[in-house]
Structures are given as structure tokens and as C-alpha cells.
Amino acid sequence: MSGNALPLWLQAVVWTAAIAVLLRQAGALRTHIRAATPDTLRVLLVAALALAAMRWFNTAALQGVMLHFLGATIATLLFGTGVACWVMAAVSLSGVLLGAAWQGWAADFLVTGALPVAVTAVASRAALRWAPRNIVVYVMLNAFAAAALAMAASMLAKATVTAWLGGRTVEAYLTATPLLMFAEAFFSGTAMALIVVYRPHWCTSFDDRAYLWPQAPM
Predict the structure, then answer these.
(1) Spatial separation of the C-alpha atoms in residues 187 and 144, rounded to whole Å
(2) Under the phi-then-psi rule, with left for phi > 0, alpha for psi from -120 to 50, and beta for the rest, what region is 127?
């Protein structure tokens, strides 16, 4: 291994995994686009551009430490896991262009895109199954809590890989994790609270019949 870069064999594995994830979710993206209205497509484009622009705020200037917002929870709640993976792949590409990608596009996508999307999906399903259905619970668990867990998973994955590579920035990642968990939760939770209040039809995971007017059990 040279420096803290991934070895070539692992880069090949990571690229294969990243491409496999996107190919697996290609059907979801195709279905979403075919069924989309012009307004829906505008929401998808604007959301992808906004999350990509968030990569401008990063710590690329700090040697060996790459910290930034994710936005994966917002993408997952708005569009579902399949489309969210493609959105986050585009976000990672913007990270490459901005010099703010962690270990290249593929690794960055898996750690800051696919993994947080998966964590958000699991957290949302758990909330749907075990928590009462109302708008406060949706925002607090599906948005705030899921975003915090997604950031924690991403940061711990970076710390683990960095430790395995013999990097010296493991402590920086671990120290920053609680702070970024709070920041990501606040960012995602606030955005989703505004969306479900003012534009609930933008959000595929939010059913106003279930969260605003739940039916009493017979």
C-alpha cells in the first residue's frame, strides 16, 4: 500500500460493487422517470443539484480528512432507495469534480451514498413498523434520527478503512462523528419537515392519509 490510498485489488472490488449497486437500482430509476410528470422531474433535478452543491462545503483542505454533509436521507425519503442511489452517485461525481471525493468516486459513493441510503431505508422501515404514524414521528425518526444514523455509519466506515490503511486521521473521524451526526440530523430533518408540510406530494415515503389522517382500527 502506498500512502493511505486503497490498494489496486480493493479499488477493483469497490468499483465492481458500486457499479453493481447502480445496475441493481437501474429499474427503479427507469420506472421513476417513465412515471414522472414535468414537476416530478424538476424536483429530482433540483434535489440532485442541491445535494451536489453541498459538497462545496468540505474539509478537502485538511490532509487526509474528508468531512461534508451527505443528504442521503433526504434523497431516500423523497425518491426511494433505488433513485436515491443514483442521486448519490451523481453527488459523489460532483465530489470528484470539486476535489472532495473520499478515495475516488466508487468508494465515495459506497460510503457516503449507498451505505447511508441503506441505513435510512432500514431506519424508516423500523419506524413504519414499530412507531405510531403521525407527522411528528415521521420527521423525528425517519428524518432526524435516520440522518444521524446514516452519518454515523458513513463516518465509522471511513474511520475503519483509514485505520486498516494505517492512516493517522482515524481519531479525527471519530471525534467529528457526533458533531456531524447532529449537523446532518438538523439539516435533513429541517428540510424534510418543510417538505412534508408545504410540498408533501414531493415525498414518496410520506402518505398524508397515514401520517395526517390515520384511520382508527376497526
Answers:
(1) 8
(2) alpha
